[in-house]
Write a structure and sequence with these properties.
It is a multi-pass membrane protein. It is found in: Membrane. 73% of the residues lie in helices and 0% in strands. By secondary structure, the protein is mostly helical. It has a single domain, classed as Up-down Bundle (Growth Hormone, Chain: A). The longest helix is centred in the first third of the chain and has 38 residues.
């Protein structure tokens, strides 16, 4: 590898009132560029995640408004199959769906995914039987598999490593807000007097805007820095300098199959995916059963929709704070352990506390925090620790594992116990990965010497095995 230290990799920050020498990042100009990127990329992607979570999670609200009685014969097993059908296509399509953003412009890929799930979610309003609602859920899974992890890949095209987690928190936070908005919308819809079933109105209200959003994403979301007309020439040069400072300036050559192979053959892909699956179990439980869990505390079905709002609101604030500090200290693993510990406490309280509904409601706050706040942390960990874009795309696609478990009213001991057990497993596995990354970084320091920040690291060719590459703890 060429160890030459070119001057254009020098990234010293300069004061706002100084004119930077050539090849040095102007801090004032960088802040202005970040504001411009955030003003377009964040709103569009946040709206997509809000839309996706509303269209995925409204099945739980619709269940309380009569869907299960009208289409599923009040059969809990049929309802579980309806939930599971989403995750089948979501899981199978996640890797090819994420790679699609490498094969074609990412704004086209993301917009197409949004259109697919928006149309399918709207069509759920017209479902007349058990089979039709399963088909719609399958297509929602396909649409979201194109979008789910591709946004993380898209962020890595525009933002530096220590900028991603905070923005992913805002992005994933839309999912937390979706839970709050979903509860409010469902509460309002439940009071509509119409000859049309309220659960059908709910699907229309939350599904149709996604179709329009998909068109807007395809037209207005910036694609890649080297091709987007969104940037001026000066801004494009600054963006390349920012990315080059962290060896993220990989050329767009479509899918690199060596990077795909590296992701499939790297044991770390499977270990991190397992940690994400532990979180996904909580997330799928919240998506399908949270309103029902809250209703089990003694609230009416309508009020249960309303009482789901505060846990999601608190979860959103907690997520922003945790991921902001994660970016500040440039660490992921310890924060993942913290959030899973809170998740563990929530499921433990739901499992062992029977008659104290105030304490059980507090546990709901812990579960929401655990279900959502780990998502941007783990996604950022993957993005930071994969060398090339194609390796990153496949590894991110790996994360879309699914976990869906049947529940038994009123205490759901099986589901609570499984969530508790998998939270413990996630804490142990994350701790082991922290130890591994520390030791591997120390080994590379002994073999290669301390990495020079001005040295070009050939991550595009050698991925995370490139000399000079170090893992984020």
């Amino acid at each position: 590898m060429n160890n030459e230290k070119p001057q254009d990799l020098h990234v010293e920050q300069v004061a706002d009132d100084e004119s930077p020498p050539e090849g040095v990042i102007d801090r004032k100009a960088e802040r202005k560029l970040l504001l411009k990127l955030d003003a377009v990329i964040l709103p569009l992607t946040v709206l997509m995640y809000l839309s996706a979570n509303l269209d995925r999670g409204n099945i739980g609200n619709a269940r309380l408004q009569g869907l299960q009685k009208e289409l599923l014969d009040n059969d809990d097993k049929k309802y579980s199959v309806v939930l599971l059908s989403f995750y089948v296509t979501y899981m199978l399509g996640s890797i090819p769906g994420t790679l699609l953003s490498k094969a074609i412009p990412p704004n086209w890929a993301l917009g197409a995914g949004c259109l697919v799930w928006g149309i399918a979610a709207s069509c759920m309003a017209g479902c007349q039987n058990y089979a039709s609602i399963i088909v719609c859920r399958l297509f929602i899974g396909i649409g979201e598999s194109i979008f789910g992890q591709a946004v993380v890949l898209h962020y890595s095209l525009w933002y530096k490593k220590n900028e991603i987690a905070t923005r992913l928190a805002a992005f994933i936070g839309a999912g937390v807000l979706a839970g709050a908005f979903g509860g409010l919308i469902a509460y309002g819809v439940s009071h509509i007097k119409s000859h049309i079933a309220t659960w059908r109105i709910l699907f229309l209200i939350e599904g149709c805007p996604s179709v329009l959003l998909g068109i807007c994403v395809a037209l207005f979301l910036p694609g890649r820095p080297d091709r987007s007309s969104f940037l001026t020439e000066a801004e494009r040069e600054l963006e390349f300098l920012r990315l080059r400072s962290q060896n993220l300036d990989e050329a767009d050559n479509g899918i690199d199959w060596n990077g795909v192979k590296r992701a499939f053959t790297d044991w770390k892909s499977y270990v991190i995916t397992f940690i994400y699956s532990c979180m996904q179990l909580t997330l799928s439980s919240l998506s399908g059963f949270f309103p029902t869990i809250v209703a089990s505390l003694g609230y009416t079905n309508a009020n249960a929709q309303l009482y789901t709002v505060p846990p999601y609101a608190v979860g959103f604030v907690f997520m922003i704070l945790v991921n902001h500090f994660s970016d500040r200290v440039r660490m992921r693993g310890p924060f993942i352990i913290l959030v899973f510990s809170i998740n563990l406490l929530g499921w433990l309280l739901l499992l062992v506390v029977i008659h104290n509904n105030h304490l059980r409601y507090f546990a709901c706050f812990c579960v929401v925090i655990g279900g959502y706040c780990t998502i941007p942390l783990i996604q950022s960990w993957v993005s930071n620790n994969t060398g090339s874009q194609s390796q990153r795309a496949v590894h991110l696609g790996f994360l879309n594992s699914f976990a869906n478990w049947a529940a038994q009213k009123p205490y759901w001991h099986t589901g609570f116990g499984l969530n508790l057990g998998f939270s413990c497993a996630a804490i142990i596995t994350t701790s082991a990965m922290i130890i591994y990354y520390r030791r591997e970084n120390a080994r590379r320091d002994r073999v290669e010497g301390k990495p020079d920040p001005r040295m070009k690291v050939d991550q595009a060719s050698y991925h995370d095995l490139a000399p000079g590459f170090r893992y984020t703890i």
